[in-house]
Design brief:
The structure is a homodimer. Chain A is of the alpha+beta class. The first copy, chain A, has 2 domains: 105 residues, Jelly Rolls, CATH 2.60.120; 86 residues, Arc Repressor Mutant, subunit A. Chain A contains 7 helices and 11 strands. Chain A has a 4-stranded antiparallel sheet. In chain A, a hairpin with a 2-residue loop joins strand 10 and strand 11. At the A-B interface, strand 4, strand 5 and helix 3 of A face strand 4, strand 5 and helix 3 of B. The structure holds a DNA duplex.
DNA sequence: CGGTTGTTTGAACTGATTCAATCTGTGTGG
DNA sequence: CCACACAGATTGAATCAGTTCAAACAACCG
């Protein structure tokens, strides 16, 4: 978790630990790319990301759109809608599963949990809006740059000098609404412009503020 | 409000009426296209749409992206992020404004209000995800068709024979992530294919199920 | 009537997709 | 250690969906 954002995480919360004590739950380890929930299956469970990164996606024809990511400490709540979306691990992950009904009842009893969850929901909403602006208004370069900034920010918190990028170009395309081929060309172009350099999956930011500028990235929406 | 969706509206709620009694608030009438909140202003108020349609948008360069709509009975909550978005009336509207802090405190005391608001938040999240799939994966025709289906559904509820479209082509472009010129061409093409007919702002659906098919519209996400 | 807002149309252009081939890195079994 | 398989990255060429710019048209309103 990023420094300063811990208060958003369910993992550090005593209230949440108590909650788990009070209800049956199971912990699952997921391989990279392992699908946890197929699109269309009933959302009768809460999913808490204990470690790793999860993606929520919707299949569409041959392609896919990723609608949200969940990092460690974040939950996928059993909204009646979430059934429409599949859940898949981006990297090897660990999740906690609990029955939805019991979870909701218990949460309703704890004002601390409620506050925490509402915070998360509002932040997720803000991220979703930002992604919508990304896909709707920005060109391919800005979209990829924005994804890089956001990811670096969520992973790295303080330091934006470098990051280990855990996403394939295919997945970046699914997030930013384009093809993997184009993501590749954009990354190459960003490197040619000396905004980033790449060694394997490691990305070094050579000019963070310029990258933010072309991405029109302002991180306030991530602070919750 | 659509038949069967009343339970989602704050307007029909006794709890909400009581809430308003307990706190200072003011009611405002808005002309069509009137901007209620500029992007960037502090979100220290709750906004409840009493009548009409509000849009939440983000300016981006010369254009704009609409990230969400609020119909009568729906609220714009004072999430710390919402400052990033402007709020504008699509049609002549009426809103209730209340101070954020007091509102939150009072809501926290009523489990009925909490349930209602969480429902709304989840539904808004589902809609946002759907819009993301729209902008990220579907082509221009499907995007416009999807917008028409969604709007007809939210306005009309039961009957999908016709609807009065209150949006300009410019606004439809801002919602579906394209230019007004292209929205125009798509509408003309939908009409040519005899899926819809237009007289002024009235749209008649000639083949609702086919329209839903090309839009890949399934309304479950709107039921909350 | 003139002014304003919104719609329609055409022509040129371009950013991104598609398709297909090639290349690279990594892990596996012999 | 090499050979092979596989996932992912890279590149090129052709194509196309959607944008841009500009002009004309229609509807509405004071």
């Amino acid at each position: 978790m990023s420094p300063g954002l811990e208060y958003l995480s369910l993992l550090g919360s005593n209230a949440f630990a108590d909650l788990l004590d009070q209800m049956p739950h199971r912990v699952l380890k997921l391989d990279r790319r392992r699908i946890l929930r197929e699109p269309g299956s009933p959302p009768d469970e809460v999913i808490l990301a204990k470690a790793g990164i999860l993606s929520m996606f919707q299949a569409h024809g041959s392609g896919r759109q990723t609608v949200a990511l969940r990092y460690a400490g974040e939950a996928i709540l059993p909204g009646s809608d979430s059934a429409r979306y599949g859940v898949q691990a981006i990297v090897p992950s660990e999740v906690i599963l609990a029955e939805a009904g019991a979870f909701c009842q218990l949460v309703d009893g704890s004002s601390e949990m409620r506050r925490l969850l509402i915070r998360q929901m509002q932040r997720n909403e803000a991220i979703c809006y930002e992604w919508l602006v990304n896909c709707g208004r920005r060109d391919a370069t800005a979209r990829v740059a924005h994804f890089l900034c956001e990811t670096a920010f969520r992973l790295g918190g303080g330091t934006k000098a470098r990051m280990l990028n855990r996403f394939t170009q295919q997945q970046m395309g699914e997030i930013t609404g384009q093809t993997s081929v184009n993501v590749n060309r954009v990354l190459a172009e960003l490197e040619r412009q000396n905004l980033i350099t790449r060694k394997g999956r490691e990305i070094e930011f050579r000019d963070w503020s310029e990258l933010c500028r072309i991405a029109s990235f302002r991180p306030d929406y991530l602070r919750a």
